[in-house]
Structure formats: structure tokens, C-alpha cells
Amino acid sequence: MIKIGLVGAGNIAQVHMNSYSKNKEAEVVAVCDINPERLKKFAEKYNIKNTFNSIDEMLASVKLDAADVCVWNCSHAECTIKALNSGLHVLCEKPMAYSAREAEEMLEVSKNANKLLMVGFVMRFEDGSRVAKDFIDKGYFGDIYYTKATYLRPHGNPGGWFSNKKLSGGGPVIDLGVHVIDHTRFLMGNPKPVSVYASTFNKLGNRHNLKTSVGWKPEDATDDDISDVEDLAVALIKYDNGATTLLETSYSLNGEGITAKEIFGSKGGASLAGDPKFYMEMNDYMVDVTPSIANLKDGCDLFDSEINHFIDCVANGTKCMAPAEDGVTIMKILDAIYESATTGHEVIL
Ligand SMILES: NC(=O)c1ccc[n+]([C@@H]2O[C@H](COP(=O)([O-])OP(=O)(O)OC[C@H]3O[C@@H](n4cnc5c(N)ncnc54)[C@H](O)[C@@H]3O)[C@@H](O)[C@H]2O)c1
Q1: Hey, what CATH topology would domain 124-297+329-348 get?
Q2: Cβ neighbours of residue 339 under 8 Å, at least 6 residues apart?
Q3: What is the pLDDT of residues 119-155, one digit of tens each?
Q4: Which residues are near ligand 1 (CB < 6 Å)?
Q5: CB hemisphere CA count around 198 (13 angstroms)
């Protein structure tokens, strides 16, 4: 049985907890949170006996095999490094860190400790992604030269720590863009990024006046929260094989909410937005060649696949599908987006 310590008892920790409770090889034996009320509520709900107000106390008191870091972005590096240095394998939620420099340090520590550091790139575990990757890797789409990474929320600034740059590191770029940049790069076979050119906008803010609901919201969100993060970002990311990704991501936008990953190759293309769609030229026609995939997993089921994979890696040494090396590369892209938006120039990586 793999013994897990949860770091953070907030919203995503509950999603992870539900997945661990379905996994027969893992048991969450301890949880810590700096917020005592949230810790108590979480421990009671899931019947976890070992509760702590800090990761230090948890690491010193309970024998664990792995830690699952589900805290604010600003504490990912600190908590991950402490857990690795205590001899634990770590699953760290996305974004891997607050900055590329922190992510590089986390990777270095995991190598020195010879422990797994997996990043919570949950979109890699979508069924549509699995099937698309199978077609891509076997050459059916040819040379993939363009991808679109879109994660637009029209009214989706969560508030709380998410909109406070000191705690989050930024807005939709580091919170939502991270998912779709990683996913499109993963589908292309993880090419090396070479340059980034970006704009960010802060025109609308958190729009508390709107009567529509926000969706993902931390428990401590209030109407008076600081919002000093961007509300829209657009970026062109170029890779060493010439492939280019267009990113669009927002917390606030007068438009439609869209989450889509689109890939365009010399022989075919795919759209992963809800149910996947595949397109190819055939017999001088454009043809929708979408394969039928039974019982597509979505929503929280993706987290079951992610958590099951983490446990499989820890228990059986299976090759990790979302390794820290990719987390570092994505953090370099995110840093470059913010740098390019600030300087107005292309950033060469
Ligand atoms: N994969 C996804 O789709 C997804 C979705 C939501 C959130 N996330 C990520 O999960 C992380 C947490 O987000 P959330 O929505 O659960 O936030 P949350 O505010 O609901 O929960 C975070 C918890 O961490 C606690 N915390 C903060 N610093 C801590 C520390 N140093 N030690 C112990 N506890 C600490 C807070 O008190 C809070 O209870 C973020 O990094 C976020 O980007 C990922």
C-alpha cells in the first residue's frame, strides 16, 4: 500500500482525494493545511486521522511514501522540495512552480534524491488525447506544424489567491494557459521551444458586477479580493522544428467561453474540444474521420487516470507520462510570455 500525505486541503485536494479513495494500491494517511478550519473539515469528511498545520510537522510525524502538493502556486516549490528531501515521491499540481528558476531547482532536487516528481498535467490523461496521440505517433497526421491552444473564460476570475499575483504568479496564463500549452506540446512530441512573442491585457478585472457565475472559486474568495493579474493573454510560441502554437487564454473577456486544443498536420488535423474530431484529405475530399471512442472519460474521471498513473509509477516504476522535465520547459514558456508582454519584444529561449 502506497501511503500518501496530502499537502493542502482545498478544492483540488478534494478532487485528488476522491480519486485516491478509488485506488486500491494507495491510502491517504495524512493531510496538512495552514488553514486549521479547512484542515478539520477535510479530515472529518474523509476520515483522515493524522492532521497537521504545516508540511514540516507532517513529514516529521508520519511515515509516507509520497506527497501530493495541492497548495497555492507560490508554495509548490517549497513543499515539493521538502517532501523530496524527506525521501518521498511527489505529485505536484500545475503550474509546476511560480517561476522557471524554482522549477529547475525542484527538478534538480528530485534527481539528487532519486525520487519521482510528476506534474499534474491532467489534460494528458484525456481519452481523446490518448487516441489522438496514438494516431499522431503512427504518422497519420503527418508533420504537425501548427497548433491552437485556447482556454477562454468570459467571466472566470476565481478571485481569492488566484487573482493575487504574489500568491499565484499570474492570471490565466499560469492557471489555464499552462494546461493547453502543455497539452498541445505533448501531442506534438514535446518539441523544444525557441521563442515567444506575447501580449497581456488587464482591461476588465474580476467583474464582480456580473450576475453570471464564476465556476472554479476558492473558499476564501470575497468581493474585496485583490486582482492584479492579467485578464487576457495572446502568445505565439515557436518550436525548434518550426511548429508554432497560438495561445489565447482569459479570465475575463466579452466573448464565448472556449477550451480547445487543435492540431494541424500535413496529412490530417484534430480538434480536441469536448468530443474529439479528426479531419483528413481523402479521395480529393475533406473528410471527418473521427474514430468512435466508447465511454469517453471527462471531468473528474481524468483525475482518476492521473492519480492511478502516479500510483502506478510509484508502486511499479512505470515511466512517468508527465515528468518534471516537461514542467520546467512549460515554466520557461510561461515566464517568457510575461517577459514578452512586459518588454514588447520577442523572447528568445
Ligand atoms: N489540475 C487542475 O485542473 C487544477 C484545478 C484547480 C486547481 N489546481 C491547482 O491546485 C492548486 C490548489 O488550488 P485549489 O483550487 O485547490 O486552491 P484552494 O485555495 O482551494 O486550496 C489550496 C489550499 O492550500 C492551503 N495552503 C496554502 N499554502 C500552504 C502551505 N504552504 N502548506 C499547507 N497548506 C497550504 C490553503 O490554505 C488552501 O486550503 C493550485 O496550484 C492550482 O493551480 C489545478
Answers
A1: Dihydrodipicolinate Reductase; domain 2 (3.30.360)
A2: 196, 347
A3: 999 999 988 898 999 999 999 999 999 999 999 999 9
A4: 7-13, 32-35, 38, 55, 70-73, 75, 79, 93-94, 120, 122, 161, 175, 218-219
A5: 30
Domain assignments of the chain as residue spans, ordered by start:
2-122+304-320, 124-297+329-348
Question: HSE (CB half, 13 Å, CA atoms) of 308?
Answer: 10
Residue 78 CA to residue 69 CA, distance in Å, equals 10
- Which mutation among 72, 94, 300 tests ligand 1's pocket best, with the greatest number of atoms within 8 A of CB? 72
Q: Which of ligand 1's atoms lies nearest the C-alpha of 71?
A: 24
343: buried, middle or exposed (CB in 10 Å: 19+, 13-18, 0-12)?
exposed
Calculate how far, in angstroms, residue 338's C-alpha sits from the geometric centre of ligand 1.
22
Q: How far is the CA of 342 from the centre of ligand 1 (A)?
A: 27
Q: What is the tens place of the pLDDT at every residue in 8-28?
A: 999 999 999 999 999 999 999
2-122+304-320: CATH architecture: 3-Layer(aba) Sandwich (3.40)
